[in-house]
Design a protein that fits this description.
With 438 residues, the protein is mainly alpha-helical. Helix content is 39%, strand content 6%. It contains 13 helices and 5 strands. Strands 1, 2, 3, 4 and 5 form a 5-stranded mixed beta sheet that branches. A hairpin with a 4-residue loop joins strand 4 (175-183) and strand 5. The longest helix has 20 residues, at 100-119.
């Protein structure tokens, strides 16, 4: 999170009040960053108050990052959405649709936007969904290139997103891929040629392109206050986004084998995390993103420095897929979409039980056994802990769609553009940022 000039990636542990696109973990959003350091009274009127301030703070953080950490920018009701993507042409010399290191990341981040939209009452699970009349464009996918990223990448991302299946094209607003140049060799990231008033002006231009000068439809912050990660099943948000980005992929990929890449990533993840017997995985209990941060914190200095957001989330999702197989219940992407939709009006735990017929605690106990963690596991107690935590976070509040309070978000996870780090997980943004995940 990064209000007040502090990079979001450096304040993952800060208390977040609202969610916006931030570099804190795969489960936060734009507001979190700004609200961590800024407090002000909501001002009514076109483009006034926190909606724009928070989103602009996130955009500027992405334009001049301390390290390249991609993510997604989403605000409920907004006329568009954005994907922050970094490209280094030196490290990816092949300019084809199979340059998956970059185009896969756009699909992954797009899935995170869908997760946020479902958590805010958007209930479409089959598509394509028509773009609404008030959207910032009637073309579904665009590219914004604010500071000289290699133009040869522009169409690649649009082609990859257009090549997704119809049931992924669920937003009623367009999505803009914001490309930033990266020179990893010389450690130059983003719009390094811009500063001060020039940076502010370019951020404003990006905002206006995506959301419109009058912020049409954007919910006021009073309707997006709260910790929506309490509703979003943080431990599986990251892994499921990566899995479905790779396995459902894009028809634009003619050579790249996403399923094979997923298998290779998991092998690397387990090597980084030494999963079997790694007691730190026992810190995963509730469905909130704080659990992932706890595991990351425990891994640092314990020989698991590369076992961060992405590897952790992918290992948890692998365990869930094995749990599905063992229980013989349907475990499709459509099923997971329904959990997100239902959670927006109840909570993650009730929605999970209603969809799958088992409890969140049942899954966690299965995963602990799979990872050969010592000690007993009380599924009922784990589920109740999650319910109590969710109630404490957002129980009883009102939101735009009549549900309990939810946050907004620009789910973020960093995505390194280094080929050598292609399967290396990074630090977290819901507060969803994940560094070095590609």
């Amino acid at each position: 999170m990064g209000g007040g000039g502090t990079p979001c990636s450096n304040v993952m542990g800060m208390k977040r009040t609202v969610r916006v696109s931030v570099r804190c973990s795969p489960w936060v959003g734009v507001l979190a960053c700004a609200f961590a350091a800024i407090s002000f009274r909501e001002v009514e009127g076109a483009c006034a108050g926190s909606a724009k301030l928070s989103t602009l703070a996130d955009i500027k953080d992405k334009m001049r990052p301390s390290r390249p950490s991609g993510g997604s920018s989403y605000w409920p009701g907004g006329a568009g959405t954005g994907l922050h993507i970094y490209v280094d042409p030196v490290e990816s010399p092949a300019y084809t649709a199979d340059t998956h290191m970059y185009t896969k990341v756009s699909i992954h981040e797009y899935i995170h936007i869908l997760q946020q939209a479902w958590m805010h009452g958007f209930n479409a699970t089959t598509g394509p969904v028509p773009l609404r009349a008030s959207a910032s464009s009637q073309t579904r996918f665009h590219v914004i290139n604010p500071c000289g990223a290699d133009k040869r990448f522009e169409q690649l991302h649009v082609d990859a997103l257009n090549g997704m299946g119809d049931d992924m094209k669920l937003l009623d607003v367009p999505t803009y891929v914001i490309l930033y140049p990266v020179d990893n060799k010389n450690e130059k990231y983003g719009c390094t040629s811009l500063s001060g008033a020039d940076l502010d002006a370019k951020a404003e231009e990006i905002f206006n392109t995506i959301y419109g000068k009058d912020c049409a439809g954007m919910w006021p912050s009073s309707d997006v206050m709260g910790d929506y990660a309490a509703k979003d099943g943080g431990p599986i948000a990251e892994g499921s986004a990566e899995y479905y980005a790779l396995t459902e992929g894009s028809s634009a990929w003619t050579v790249f084998n996403g399923s094979a890449y997923w298998t290779k990533k998991l092998a690397d993840d387990h090597e980084y995390c030494k999963t079997v017997g790694n007691k730190n995985f026992g810190l995963i209990t509730t469905g909130g993103e704080g659990n992932i941060i706890k595991v990351m914190d425990a891994n640092r200095g314990a020989g698991y420095e590369h076992c961060m957001d992405n590897p952790i989330g992918e290992i948890v999702w692998e365990a869930f897929l094995k749990f599905c197989d063992s229980k013989r219940f349907s475990c499709t992407h459509k099923d997971l979409k329904e959990v997100y939709v239902a959670a927006s009006s109840t909570n993650w735990y009730a929605a999970f039980k209603a969809q799958y017929g088992v409890t969140w605690g049942d899954f966690i106990c299965f995963a602990r056994a799979l990872w050969k963690l010592a000690g007993d596991c009380d599924a009922a107690a784990i589920t109740q802990e999650g319910l109590d935590w969710a109630k404490q976070k957002y129980g009883g509040g009102d939101s735009k769609n009549g549900n309990a309070n939810s946050g907004t978000g620009a789910l973020n996870h960093s995505n390194s553009t280094s080929n050598s780090a292609a399967t290396l997980g990074g630090a977290g943004a819901i507060a969803v940022s994940i560094a070095l995940n590609v």
